[in-house]
Amino acid sequence: MDKRNALRAGAVSATVTLMMLLSSPAMALTRDDGDDPGSGLSVGQTIGLYVLLPIVAFAIIAALAGLPYGNKAKKK
Description:
Layout: H1 2-23, H2 43-75
């Protein structure tokens, strides 16, 4: 029973490894027509895009979602 499970595990891992090797990009370093990567982002731009922008978007959505409830609390 253990030998059968070991053979099955070996066959599965060999198949997965082969599929991963076959699906890897073959010519990833070769520039193609229309491929113009441009310049990278600076540290400030990266922090602004991936940290500050989501926080601002969350704050705006939270304020808009809480807006109807804020008016009811002020009336009382």
